[in-house]
Amino acid sequence: xxxxxxxxxxxxxxxxxxxxxxxxxxxxxxxxxxxxxxxxxxxxxxxxxxxxxxxxxxxxxxxxxxxxxxxxxxxxxxxxxxxxxxxxxxxxxxxxxxxxxxxxxxxxxxxxxxxxxxxxxxxxxxxxxxxxxxxxx
Length: 137
What we know:
Elements (H helix, E strand, L loop, with lengths): L1 H20 L6 H22 L8 E17 L2 E15 L4 E15 L6 E9 L2 E8 L2
Antiparallel strand pairs: 1-2, 2-3, 3-4, 4-5
């Protein structure tokens, strides 16, 4: 009888721990959107610096493989530094380019209400270093 009670309690404890741990971390689809946002911003900055007018392109992020998710705090909000690899396909008017196993590092910040996430990037200006964030849609 005692052994049966221990088994039942053990199963309940494992169930509770699994349920509590289910919401930790960053969803993979959100990481893909954060990567796309970061790559799009980099592309825009390069085109401005080079004074080029790049055609509209379709960027598809595929096969996001998360290697690490490290909890950090950014602007007093819970955040994660996420690293790993991804594949992408860039579709232009006349051709398509694909690259595999590109390394990434993104910082994502969960907002207070817990419903939205933001891409966070550290930037340096004349006032020092600080974080800038953009809504991930």
